[in-house]
Design brief:
By secondary structure, the chain is of the alpha+beta class. It has a domain of 82 residues: Alpha-Beta Plaits (2-Layer Sandwich). Helix content is 40%, strand content 15%. A three-stranded antiparallel β-sheet has the order 1-3-2. Helix 2 crosses helix 3. The longest helix has 20 residues. The radius of gyration is 20 Å and the shape is elongated. It starts with 5 loop residues before the first helix and ends in a 20-residue tail after the last helix. Copper (II) ion (CU) binds next to helix 2.
Length: 121
C-alpha cells in the first residue's frame, strides 16, 4: 500500500487545526430574553446571528438564549443590543416601545419589569 499523498495529509492536518481553533475561540453564553412563541424565537435568533453569533438558540419555555460567538469579533452586549433592537427585552438591555409596538400582537410578551415597577423585597 502506498503512503497517503503528501498534499492530502497536509490538507487534513490543516482542516483539523482550523476546527480545533474554532472550538477554542468561540465563546458560549446564555442570557434571558423575554418573548412568547416560535415567531419570537426566529426573530430573536436572527437578531443574534445578525450581531455576529455563530449559533443562536432561544428556548420558548425557559426564555433562555444560548449563543456562541467569537469574542475577538463580537460580544454578548452587542448581541443583546441587536435582540433588543428587534423588539425583545433581554436581561441587560431594554427594547424601545417603538420596536416592541411593531411586533405582531401575539408576540407582545409581558415586558421586563422596569426599575420603577420592581417592588422592594
Ligand atoms: Cu411571538
Amino acid at each position: 500500500m502506498k503512503k497517503l499523498p503528501v498534499f492530502l495529509a497536509f490538507f487534513l492536518a490543516i482542516s483539523f487545526s482550523v476546527s480545533a481553533q474554532d472550538k477554542q475561540t468561540d465563546k458560549k453564553e446564555t442570557v434571558k430574553v423575554y418573548g412568547n412563541c416560535e415567531m419570537c424565537q426566529s426573530r430573536i435568533e436572527k437578531a443574534a446571528k445578525g450581531a455576529g453569533a455563530s449559533s443562536a438558540k432561544w428556548d420558548v419555555d425557559s426564555k433562555v438564549l444560548t449563543v456562541s460567538f467569537n469574542p475577538a469579533k463580537g460580544s454578548l452586549a452587542k448581541i443583546e443590543k441587536s435582540v433588543a433592537g428587534s423588539g425583545y427585552d433581554t436581561e441587560h438591555e431594554t427594547s424601545t416601545k417603538e420596536a416592541y409596538d411593531k411586533l405582531p400582537e401575539c408576540c407582545q410578551y409581558d415586558r421586563k419589569a422596569t426599575t420603577t415597577e420592581v417592588k422592594s423585597n
